[in-house]
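Box 3.1 — From sequence to structure: Tyrosine--tRNA ligase
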Amino acid sequence: MNIIDELSWRGLINQQSDEEGLKELVESKDISLYCGMDPTGDSMHIGHLLPFMTLERFGKFGHHPYIVIGGATGSIGDPSGKKSERPMQTMDQVNHNVKALSDQANKIFTGFTMVNNYDWTHQIGILDFLRDYGKLFNVNTMLNKEIISSRLEVGISFTEFTYQILQSLDFLTLYREHNVQLQVGGGDQWGNLTAGLDLIHKAEGQEAKVYALTIPLLLKSDGTKFGKTAGGAVWLDPKKTSPYEFYQFWFNQDDKDVVNLLKKFTFLSKEQIDDLEQSVKTAPEKRLAQKTLAQEVTKFVHGEEALKTAEKITEVLFSGEIQELTTDEVAEAFHGVPSAEISVDPINLVDLLIATNVDKSKRQAREDIQNGAIRINGERLTDTTLEINPKDSFDGKYIVIRRGKKKYFLATIK
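Predicted structure (token representation):
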């Protein structure tokens, strides 16, 4: 099986500029290819995983992937998928994000070459840009691209209008300097990708063998967009989305979606995924497919140790043995749960529940305690007169409160 057949089986191909030509090319030799990423933030999210994991799949088949960090294009703003102009970032912010994303990509992905399009763009003067590149773009053609046409009603600045030219210049530069023949991108990038093909053919001749391939927009079985939670994006930065939260995101996927996600987000073989698909049908209660998905993606993004921590937290929360967690693990496990600050002084249990907004009244707090609904650091407490000493748990930094079976609250000690 060649890489194109592999991507097709995994459902990772949306559009191709020349299906037969690309398949013939990758079967005849190892090629160089690239995907770009603009530094609009200082972390990737799971929406970035598919294109860059696709590059890594090419690498495993012997091809040579490049990642382009958009130090230049990111300072302009991609109009694709936006209903209005992006806020312009300062160059200091762009450079900060470039470094953060580069460091992150180097930790996660392997076997690629990273380049920054600012390196070949900032030296081009305005007259050279217009004469050497602008002359090769037909405005009517650009206006017909969906990324531009979708913005015409509300308006688009000349700055964002030129984004398509700058991205095309990336492809041309990589083709000339590194013999890059394929650009990979998300489905919304098709207009930009094909503009790059057009530029290369005009600049280098129609015989230039260059191709474009997009990855489909990933939807859940209910038709909604994949990758969002109630709290927003699922980040690859462990400070924004902890490895435990990341693990839980994948573990909680629906039976209807999990096999599709295993194909796209793991490097498991067809035989392994077929076995997991069978387990979904015969023993769905074991959630073996979901557990495997969570393990594989968490390990890929965060590493083996972070996976072990995420699994330990998962097991401890299921058993209720909170005291088995370390202080750092408590911070990770309860990141994002309702929390409140309390002083370091001993506090009555009833007052603690009020101070942390577990209960709204002392009467309700007493009832919850007496009914056995309250656990402090995993221990069920039923005495309303008890005093809790914050210094006694988790290095004097946290108190974990559970009300009922699933509602957790965190007291942070000042």
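Summary of the box: The longest strand covers residues 180-186.
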